[in-house]
């Protein structure tokens, strides 16, 4: 078993790495405001070997891909944390880690349909709200 100060240092390092990855992810997802004063730029000539932008999938395929990708990514991150802590820090292994893998898989299997339904409702609500805002027009917002 490792000394307490080393355990604390390992847990703090893991926490800071996860928070750093989440922060980088948020920076990558930042988008410029939709309403800018500048006219839209025309794309210039493409360089050889430059990545081709992939349009976002819409509808059911896009929703399924997003939900399943989020569930798999969350499961992998949970397993990395569980293996890192219980095998590397605490020193438990074997049957305990097998239980962590199967129990977490069961948790993902139970929560995935609920997460899918919640994601669908949120997307439907956003679409419905944007349609209502489009119908109301600018005259209603000035009152």
Automatic annotation (TrEMBL):
Keywords attached to this Swiss-Prot or TrEMBL record, sorted alphabetically, are: Membrane, Transmembrane, Transmembrane helix
Keyword Transmembrane helix in record: yes
Record-annotated membrane-spanning stretches: 6-29, 67-88, 100-125
User: Which protein, by its recorded name, is this?
Assistant: Secreted protein with PEP-CTERM sorting signal
> Organism source for this protein?
Streptomyces halobius
